[in-house]
Amino acid sequence: MRSAGVISGVSVAHDRASVQEIESASSDDVETVVARLRERDGVTEAFSLQTCNRAEAYVVTDDAADGRRALADFAPDVRDGSVRHMDHEESLRHLMRVAAGLESLVLGEDQILGQLKTAVEAAHDTGSIGSMLEDALMKAIHVGERARNETAINEGAVSLGSAAVRLARAKLDHPIEEARALVVGAGEMGTLAAKALASVDVSELVVVNRTVAHAAHLSREVPGIDDAAGLDDITELLVNADLVITATSSPNYVVGTTHLETAGETMLIDIAQPRDIDPAADEFDGVSVHDIDDLETVTDRTAAQREQAAKQVEAMIDEEFDRLLASYKRKRADEAISSMYEAAELVKRREVSTAISKLEAQGDLTDEQRETVESLADALIGQLLSAPTKSLRDAAGDDDWTTIQTAMQLFDPGFDDYSLPDELKSAPAMTDDAEDGRSEGDHDVVDEDAPRRVVEQLSND
């Protein structure tokens, strides 16, 4: 019945971890990670995000200690200093920062927002997201969209593919325009890399992909791509290339040492996660291998402009963060209030049934008299629960979760404990007046004379 809980998170990302450590934390796919987390004691919801620059997981539990235990072995082979553990509020704020591009290797880049949306869709398909994570993730996506629509955070931002081209321009011993370039991978990142190379007008550009048809489609879509090929041709293609950017989603190396034995002088930039290129390839004379870690050295002429926009995004996150916390508070209070009213309603229906049965034993009751008994019971509930309702809303506003959790335990309606006549089991939960009073949230304003008048009416009848 309850969706109350706290979120715990864990992150292995480029700001603390090396590409090898991120790769280690991403050894299992997100579906496997989520399934494993859902089996942990106390975990009711789970979500995982994996990109080139990060591997993260989030769980919802009733107790924060259960969340920490569930995530304790998320990255067992990664040194402690590279793993960031986050409590409830840290997790909420971090998700917003990730979606806005503030946590990206390239400040403000757009790809992360699409990657987050894709991860959320996948999690929905597995049924691992409930109301707690749903609210957090939808808020993060909303912040990411606001950041890009209302600020200049992504103006002039480069993708990893563009950053790779800038690194190549800085490291090649000849002008990049003279390069014979090879892009391995025709997915999102491979497409961005191919477009970046085409924009600098390299002398030759070939796209290689496991599915040749995808590479051929990309070559038709992007002017400047000269040819498309399959992975089976990669050894021969490496002989002719002096610049290679790899960006596949393969779980295994697609460029190994055997492929490079006859390659000669070649610069390889690996922007894939997990890595596409065997690090041992760097041992060949004339072959240099660079990975995502090296891209941090690439300077960006528009960085100052986006740094200023980042301050605006930070303020935006503060605003949306407060709104999200307030929303959670209202929901927690409303859950407790709902439990309280449901419990009271069950008691009322049982006792009203008993009272009507006794009255009928003394003589027939009219419909009007039955309604009078119901009104008396509703009026009593309204007055008795008015003060607790206000106290629970005040407790939510003051972050007094102990009071709310206690109320939810005390008033959690045990439906199986109540025996109601069949005709009452399908009756409305409460009268319109009682429901209106609860939904308005103002139970302090009640008709104090109503119970007396009802009793007097019953006596007159």
UniProtKB/TrEMBL annotation:
Signal peptide: none annotated. Its EC number is 1.2.1.70. Residues 312-412 form the Tetrapyrrole biosynthesis glutamyl-tRNA reductase dimerisation domain. The keyword Oxidoreductase applies. Belongs to the glutamyl-tRNA reductase family. GO terms for biological process: protoporphyrinogen IX biosynthetic process from glutamate. SUPFAM superfamilies: Glutamyl tRNA-reductase catalytic, N-terminal domain, Glutamyl tRNA-reductase dimerization domain, NAD(P)-binding Rossmann-fold domains. This is Glutamyl-tRNA reductase. PROSITE patterns: GLUTR (PS00747). Substrate binds at residues 51-54, 104, 109-111, 115. Residues 415-461 are annotated as: Disordered. It comes from Haloferax marinum. Possesses an unusual extended V-shaped dimeric structure with each monomer consisting of three distinct domains arranged along a curved 'spinal' alpha-helix. The N-terminal catalytic domain specifically recognizes the glutamate moiety of the substrate. The second domain is the NADPH-binding domain, and the third C-terminal domain is responsible for dimerization. One of its GO terms (molecular function) is glutamyl-tRNA reductase activity. InterPro entries: 4pyrrol_synth_GluRdtase (IPR000343), 4pyrrol_synth_GluRdtase_dimer (IPR015896), 4pyrrol_synth_GluRdtase_N (IPR015895), GluRdtase_CS (IPR018214), GluRdtase_dimer_dom_sf (IPR036453), GluRdtase_N_sf (IPR036343), NAD(P)-bd_dom_sf (IPR036291), Shikm_DH/Glu-tRNA_Rdtase (IPR006151). The active site is at residue 52. Keywords: NADP, Oxidoreductase, Porphyrin biosynthesis. The lineage of its organism: Archaea, Methanobacteriati, Methanobacteriota, Stenosarchaea group, Halobacteria. Catalyzes the NADPH-dependent reduction of glutamyl-tRNA(Glu) to glutamate 1-semialdehyde (GSA). PANTHER family: GLUTAMYL-TRNA REDUCTASE (PTHR43013). Residues 10-151 form the Glutamyl-tRNA reductase N-terminal domain. Residues 436-455 have a biased composition (Basic and acidic residues). NADP(+) binds at residues 185-190. Homodimer.
